[in-house]
Structures are given as structure tokens and as C-alpha cells.
Design brief:
With about 240 residues, the protein is of the alpha/beta class. The protein contains 9 helices and 7 strands. Bound molecules: S-adenosylmethionine (SAM). S-adenosylmethionine binds next to helix 1, strand 2 and helix 6.
């Protein structure tokens, strides 16, 4: 499968974002996100690197923007409990179908589910110590992306960190995802949007260089493996 991935395909739309998406397929997609994320997004690493340290200082307030099925939130809740640490986790999504599914699959994690935008939390004066997102930036148009980055800074408490993680677009990533998911298209990923939306997501995603050119001053963008990127922003520990 050869595709020109030299520029973002902002016209392509993920099927899961459609208002009339098949609900059964959508829910199977939320369910399968957990497996995909365990393989490519490594939320455990995020926990060890960015959450645990802050949780050791006291109860940590975590916000996941565009939480989808909220598997990362559940994993973080389990790890905090395992490590004898405490915190509150808010799973935010603009899609009520995601919030409804995630709330029904909380599995005792005790997460707060919100159907809202980050700007709604800013208006409420909410504050968080760790703000994360995964596979969300490429869904956003330019104004929405700027808004989410701006809101993330406003919502961050002193000493906190924002980590927005996503796919890094490349022809290799596209070919690898196409090849790796093809054998499972009729089994594991059958009846879900995982394969088709995954390929669209790669076409919509940024390269680290493109994202670095967009983020405001003070943000750091870096690439990683496999085909990953992240934009980080840290708030100083004290307010002037
Ligand atoms: C590909 S899914 C990723 C879900 C989850 N973070 C994961 O890694 O599995 C993208 C999610 O972002 C949500 N989303 C898109 N734009 C958003 C926005 N402006 N604010 C909050 N959520 C948004 C979508 O509804 C969708 O659930």
C-alpha cells in the first residue's frame, strides 16, 4: 500500500467521529483501544515517568482530554492504588458516546467522567497536576488544537505537567500499521473502526517538526518509537 504522506490529510475523517457511526462498532472500538494503547501508547511508561513522582508529593489531580474508552485512566488508577498513592482522575471527552461507554466500564476505578470541552473546565476554574491526551491532537482543526494547548496551560497547577501524545505521521508508520493489523482485520479488529480509523489517523497526524512549528513558546515536542510524538509543557513549581 503506497500513499503520499508528505503532508497531513486534513480532509480525511475518522469514521468514529461521525454522528451516525454504527454504535456497536464504535463501542467495540472503545473496547479495543485498550489493546492498541498497551502496544503502542505505553500508558505505564507515562505513569512511571510523569504521574508517580507527582503523586508521591500528595493526592494528584489528573485530567485525560479526549479519553475515549478511558483505558489509560483505568490503568493509572490501578497503578496509583498498587503503589499506595492517591489522586483523582477526570476522563473528559467531547463525544457523549465515549463518556457513556467509559462510565459503564469503570470497573471500580473511581474515575470522574465528563462530557465537556477543556474550555468548560477552564471556565469552572478547575486545576490539575497532570494533564494528558493520547491520539487526540490529530482529530482537531487548527483552532481546536490551539484551544486545547491554551486550555491545558490554564488548567495546570504550579509544578504540574501537560503531556499530549499522538502518532507521528510517516510512510513507514502507515505501512507498518497496515501490515500489522491486516491479519487481524477479520478477527480481533472485526466489527470495529480500529484498522480503518488507524490508517486515517496516521494520514491526519503531525510529524514532530510540524507540531513543533505550531505549539506556543515553552512547549517541547519530541518524537519517539514506534511512530510516536509528544508535546510537553511544565508549569513552574511556584507562582510569582
Ligand atoms: C482516537 S480517540 C482516542 C481515545 C483515547 N485517548 C485513546 O488513546 O484510546 C480520540 C478521542 O478524542 C475525542 N475528542 C476529539 N476532540 C476532542 C476535544 N476537542 N475535546 C475532548 N475530546 C475530544 C474524541 O471524541 C475521541 O473519543
Amino acid at each position: 500500500m503506497t500513499r503520499d504522506l508528505s503532508a497531513r490529510d486534513t480532509w480525511a475523517r475518522e469514521l468514529m467521529d461521525e454522528a451516525d457511526a454504527d454504535l456497536e462498532m464504535l463501542e467495540r472500538t472503545y473496547e479495543r483501544f485498550g489493546l492498541v494503547n498497551a502496544l503502542v501508547s505505553r500508558p505505564g511508561l507515562l505513569y512511571r515517568r510523569d504521574v508517580r513522582l507527582r503523586a508521591r508529593r500528595g493526592p494528584v489531580r489528573i485530567l485525560d482530554i479526549g479519553a475515549g474508552g478511558a483505558d489509560a485512566c483505568r490503568l493509572i488508577a490501578r497503578r496509583l492504588r498498587r503503589d499506595g498513592l492517591t489522586g483523582t482522575i477526570t476522563a473528559l471527552d467531547v463525544d457523549p458516546r465515549a463518556i457513556d461507554w467509559a462510565a459503564r466500564h469503570d470497573r471500580g476505578a473511581g474515575i470522574a467522567y465528563r462530557h465537556a470541552l477543556s474550555s468548560d473546565l477552564v471556565a469552572e476554574g478547575a486545576q490539575f497536576d497532570v494533564i494528558i491526551s493520547n491520539h487526540v491532537l490529530h482529530h482537531l482543526n487548527d483552532a481546536e488544537l490551539r484551544g486545547v494547548l491554551h486550555d491545558s496551560q490554564r488548567l495546570l497547577a504550579p509544578g504540574g505537567i501537560v503531556v499530549h501524545r499522538d502518532i507521528a505521521r510517516s510512510a513507514a508508520a502507515y505501512a507498518l500499521f497496515a501490515a500489522a493489523t491486516w491479519p487481524f482485520a477479520r478477527s480481533l479488529f472485526r466489527g470495529s473502526f480500529i484498522r480503518v480509523d488507524g490508517l486515517i489517523s496516521i494520514r491526519r497526524s503531525y510529524t514532530p517538526r510540524e507540531l513543533a512549528a505550531i505549539v506556543p513558546a515553552g512547549w517541547r515536542v519530541r518524537g519517539g518509537l514506534p511512530a510516536r510524538l509528544e508535546a510537553r509543557w511544565e508549569a513552574r513549581a511556584t507562582v510569582d
